[in-house]
Design goal:
With 430 residues, the protein is α/β, with parallel strands linked by helices. The chain is built from twelve helices and 18 strands. Helix 2 links the parallel strand 1 and strand 2.
């Protein structure tokens, strides 16, 4: 939906891209200019693939890539324990390690290419909404034993020194994580990809996809691309190009707001500059911005609500954690669509010869989209078959339209369980 967006209004001058207005030929055509598409195109160029063309329906990172919470950390939407049950220790560790390596690749690209994206190297806190510490202890032990990751324990006193609220109890701190301005980073990727020879076109929606001899033709309203291989990276903004690809995901909305500059009032709420999310299924996530604003996000829904509705919902959520912020102004509120698969994992791989997909990153996409770009680029350029490790999480049907109702009911049920647990704990204290 169109709404005032903090990221778009603070990103500065974006690279100017023209629409595709002719017929061109390419080794690879990438459809979609979000993080998955940009990382794939850049990964191909870095591996020496020439004649890479990317077409984007709007402008790069228009969707979830340029509107998300800006958290950069390892893992997938599917939890680590589930990943371990699905794949066993070796394969699960390999996939998870791919995302932590992607975090380091993002950090390296920021430095190497001078991408000014307000990256805040302050880590991320997973704060416990509940008194029971077992969920933290179990995840900390699992991450250490199965994935070799050391998330530091923070006791209640330390948490409350950092976060000026009685809402949380203990927490885990992930020191290797960071947060950033995603649209500034995306614009940096566009610049670097162009410098590497990638041809990028904006306002060029792909309207059809068809086989042509040994390759594919992607048509736009005023041009076309004949390519040997095509990568579909459309996220929640489905292009209608391939029935199985579109059927594999649900576009789900999530919500974000940004306060007015808080000045010293930000320190009244947060003494840390880490980003924060909590242990509920229906969790809040938030982070301090360099200009003393607070970005706050949360909730998922099948409804793409108005900015006014988003503001009302999230303002109420913020005051549950930081009642001392009552009365602060909310300058921006928006929603955006993410793509979810039933199995909660990305769909990365080859759909049929020469046709690739990278989608279904859910609400945990910055590092996994970077991993997807590397996996697909190395597959096309070097014959690397790492993409087969995602074979257990294929294009299973999202069962639309019933899947939308199922997703909403599942979210409401999880939200109700969170609320019930909180009430039980509150009752035990009284």
């Amino acid at each position: 939906m169109a709404s005032r967006n903090y990221y778009s209004e603070t990103a500065g001058r974006a690279p100017v891209l023209q629409a595709l207005k002719s017929r061109v030929e390419a080794e690879v055509c990438v459809v979609g200019g979000g993080f998955a598409g940009l990382n794939t195109a850049l990964g191909l160029a870095e591996r020496g693939v020439r004649d890479v063309v990317l077409v984007e329906a709007d402008t790069p990172a228009f969707g979830a890539s340029g509107r998300n919470g800006g958290f950069v950390f390892g893992g997938f939407s599917r939890g680590e324990a589930s990943l371990l049950r699905d794949l066993g220790p070796s394969r699960a560790s390999d996939l998870y390690t791919g995302t932590t390596q992607a975090v380091e690749l993002i950090r390296r690209r920021i430095t190497q290419h001078g991408i000014a994206c307000d990256d805040t190297q302050a880590g991320i806190l997973w704060a416990n909404w509940f008194r029971d510490p077992d969920v933290l202890r179990q995840r900390q032990a699992l991450l250490s034993k199965a994935f070799g990751r050391d998330w530091r324990w923070m006791d209640r006193d330390e948490v409350r020194r950092q976060l000026r609220t009685t809402r949380y109890h203990d927490a885990l701190y992930e020191p290797q994580a960071f947060h950033f301005h995603p649209l500034k980073y995306a614009n940096g990727l566009v610049r670097v990809a162009r410098e590497r020879g990638v041809s990028l076109f904006a306002h060029s929606p792909a309207v059809s996809l068809e086989r042509t001899g040994g390759g594919w033709r992607v048509a736009t309203p005023s041009g076309s691309v004949d390519a040997k291989q095509v990568v579909l990276a459309c996220g929640g903004y489905l292009a209608g190009l391939h029935r199985r690809v579109d059927a594999g995901v649900l576009p789900i909305a999530t919500y974000v707001m940004v306060t007015e500059p808080l000045g010293v009032r930000l320190d009244d709420a947060m003494r840390t500059r880490a980003a924060v999310y909590d242990t509920r299924f229906a969790f809040d996530y938030y982070r301090p911005l360099p200009d003393s604003r607070l970005l706050w996000g949360g909730r998922i829904s099948i409804l793409d609500r108005s900015p006014q509705a988003v503001r009302r919902l999230l303002y109420r959520d913020m005051l549950k954690v930081f009642p001392q912020l009552e009365g602060v102004g909310i300058d921006y509120a928006w929603s955006g669509l993410m793509s979810y698969a039933r199995h909660e994992m990305p769909q990365i791989g080859q759909v049929e010869p020469g046709l690739w997909v990278a989608q279904a990153f859910g609400g945990h996409g910055v590092a996994p989209t970077t991993l997807a770009g590397e996996v697909i680029a190395s597959a096309i350029a070097e014959g690397d078959e790492r993409w087969r490790e995602f074979g257990a999480y294929g294009l299973v049907s999202a069962m639309k339209p019933a899947g939308f109702l199922g997703a909403q009911l599942s979210y409401w049920w999880a939200e109700a369980k969170d609320a019930w647990k909180a009430r039980v704990e509150q009752g035990a204290r009284t």
